[in-house]
Every structure is written in C-alpha cells, then in structure tokens.
Amino acid sequence: MRLLAILKSLLAICLTIGLLALSSTSGHSATGPSASVVITSISGYDGHAFVFAQVTTPNSVSPAPTGTTHQSPYYAEWARVAIGSTTCPWVWAVYVFNRTTNLQVNPTPPNAPSPDFGTTTLVCASPGSTPVDEAPVAEATARLDLDLLVNVSPAVVAVGSSSLISARLNSTLVNDLNLYLNMAIEDWSVTGWFVDFGDSQTTMANGGPTTLRLAHTYQAAGQYDARVIAYISGHAQAAVYDRYGRPQLIQQAFSVQVGNHAVASTRARAIKRYLSPAGQVTVVPSLDASAPDATAGFNQIDALRGALTTMAVHLRIQQEGLMTIDGRVTGVGRSRLIAWRLGGSPSDAPAGAGTLPGQVHAFQDPLRLQWNAPDRLASGRTQGYVVPMTLYVETHYPDGHVANFVIASSFFVFVNFAAESG
C-alpha cells in the first residue's frame, strides 16, 4: 500500500503524540540563567492540539521550531524512541539547542537514572495531538493498511466461477488520519477506487460509499494478490512554523491513498460426470393376476401358441446412475422408464392387432405379440424366442440434473402350449 499526502511538505505523515511530561531544564553558560524547556500547544479543529517546544527565560519566551531556517534563538530536534511500555510504546525525545552556540538547552544531568535519552523532555503518543511540522513515520502506511479491510469470497473457487472482492474502510479511519497526518481532518470522502485483481486485470470504480463489492472471474488456477486502493480527499487544519518559528494554523485540501490486499485462490474446475444406469427389460403378461409395481416383471415368460399375448413393459434397475466429481462418487440417481421400442421382425399377430417393431411407445403402452410356431429344438433342447427391446430411461441426479439414456435389452418367450386343443 502507498500512502500519498498531497499537502506539500507541510502536511507530512506522522504519528500523533500526547504530553508524557512537561519537563524543563536549566542552563547557564549557553542560554543564560534559568532557561527551561516546556512542551506547549495550540488548539486546532475539533479539539485537536498541535504541540511544539518552547524555551522560557526570565526575560523572554521563545519557540523552538524544528529546522534551522527560522529566526527564533532556539531550534529543536524530535527523535522517536521505543520504550516498550503498554501504555506508551514509544516517545518523542525532544532536544532543544541554542541557535547561536548549538549547545543543548535541556540535557539530562550527570548520573541520570537509566534509561537516559539525553534529554529531560519526553512526549508520549496521544490521538489528540501531533508535533508541528514533523517528518513522516514509517508505521503510518502499515496502520492505514489495516483501516482498509479487503476480502475475497469464497476463499477458494473453481476456475471460471465468480469471486467477490470486497473492501471496507473501517470506522477508525477519521481518527487514524488525525493520528498519522500532521493535521486535524475537517471532512473527507472517497473519490474513487482502484482494483488490481492480480491476474493482469484492473478496473476503476466511482467513489462515494466507503465500501466496494466487485465480482471477478479468474480463468486459470493459482493464487492471486487482489489489491484495492481507496482514493480519499478532503479538507484539514494543520500547523506550520512562521518565519520566526511561532506555530500558526492553516487550512489545506489533502488527498491520500489507503490500500490493502487479500489472496484469491482458484483451483481447476472439478470434472462432474453423470454415469448411465444399468437396466434390463422385464414384462408382465396380462394373464398374471398380481398387480405389478415399477420393479416387477420377468425376463422370460411362457406364452400360448397362436394366442395374442398382452404384456406390460417394465425396467429393472441393476445399477442406478451415479454422479461423480473428479472420479469420486458423490450421489446416486433415480431412474424411470419413459418409453420403449420393439426391435427385431414382426410377430405372428394378425394385421393391426400386434405391436410393430421400430415404433416408440409410451412406458404405459401394452406390448402385444403372438407366436404361431412352438419353440425350436436344438440338440434335444428347446430354444425360446428372443424379443429385442430398446428402453428410454430418464434419470434424476441429486444436484437436480436430469439425463436421458437408451438401454438395449431383451427378454425370452417359450411357446409350449397350444392355444386350442386338437
């Protein structure tokens, strides 16, 4: 993430601080008698304070600005020092010097207790105040990263499926801008968004809301660094040193970029297959007194010679249709017979009475066949008639997919009895 502060040099990024101690020190040879250093402030917008060092002697009160270009008789250097405290993880150590002699006004006395920072003026961070005209602090960008929350959902998606990239500026952003920019924010808004999806695709979105939601489809498997930047502009109050080194308030337009990123993971699309069921035709002659159900029926029947035989056609499932993902069975289908077709040559039924081969019939239509000759003999054994059938099957899978299959099957008929005596 890059943080850009377009506030010229006077609106640099810095951590705000609060007064840890209003320390003073006395000098004699360098500054005259009883010179002391205090940290004071001027109040800005919405109670924000801009703090600076000030030197007091019996005869004068002078600011100690940073830098050496001001006309004040003193100047200051602010150094950031980590102290590891839970209430104050780091402090500003403020070193004030006489401009004429370059001697320090506020050194620690000899034999000062540890830790000795070389100055008696220390200032701890506080959200409500910032040093006047201080330089950037490295943690500013990292902290503003946290204020823009970027997420990719779902965490892992199949190639070709849509991912949702979302970004949200959290509620602490206003305070953080006060904390990291040397100014008090009066107003701000998001003027635009930039999104780099990580796959060489980028886009710009209009500003306005503090949240963003964009759908994106990755075309190859892998991990992508999705980056989002919010462009923010507004107006702020800042403090700068005048020619003499006295702080004064100014108002300035500002712009910053707040960015963050999240990892988008894609995997190869799963291969889903719908395997056909295995089934067999069965028939139930109408002379059978029982009421057949969907699985009832016989693969071979006996028929009367010379008599028209009426049969109901059924499907017997031997193996139900399976749904697989990447070769792994993930569901079992439910199959039903929706139509059938007779194969082979016409039977001995009278014209217009029997079922003709080649015509497709609904599953509930009866099958009517007749055989006028008895079974053939081969090696002293009877051989029944083979009746070829084509079954049209509809299978419903657990994910809602419906598939149609064609199953070739047959059944056997044994003609052993005469239709009439004599």
Describe the structure.
The chain contains 2 helices and 28 strands. The protein is rod-shaped. It has a 5-stranded mixed beta sheet with strand order 9-15-14-11-12. It has 422 residues and is mainly β. A hairpin with a 2-residue loop joins strand 25 and strand 26. The chain has helices at 139-147, 173-180; strands spanning 36-43, 49-56, 61-64, 74-82, 90-98, 122-124, 129-131, 148-153, 156-158, 162-169, 183-196, 202-208, 211-217, 222-241, 247-267, 272-274, 278-285, 300-305, 309-319, 322-325, 328-332, 334-342, 360-362, 367-369, 376-378, 381-383, 385-396, 402-418. The longest helix is centred in the middle third of the chain and has 9 residues, at 139-147. It folds into 3 domains: 36-126, no CATH class; 139-267, Sandwich (Immunoglobulin-like), CATH 2.60.40.10; 272-418, no CATH class.
Distance between the termini: 103 Å
Largest sheet, described in full? 5 strands, mixed
Low-pLDDT windows of residues: 1-32, 288-294
Number of strands: 28
| Arrangement of strands in the largest sheet | 9-15-14-11-12
SSE topology sketch:
Elements lengths: L35 E8 L5 E8 L4 E4 L9 E9 L7 E9 L23 E3 L4 E3 L7 H9 E6 L2 E3 L3 E8 L3 H8 L2 E14 L5 E7 L2 E7 L4 E20 L5 E21 L4 E3 L3 E8 L14 E6 L3 E11 L2 E4 L2 E5 L1 E9 L17 E3 L4 E3 L6 E3 L2 E3 L1 E12 L5 E17 L4
Parallel strand pairs: 2-7, 9-15, 18-28
Antiparallel strand pairs: 1-2, 2-3, 4-5, 5-6, 8-10, 10-13, 11-12, 11-14, 14-15, 16-20, 17-19, 19-24, 20-21, 22-23, 22-27, 25-26, 27-28
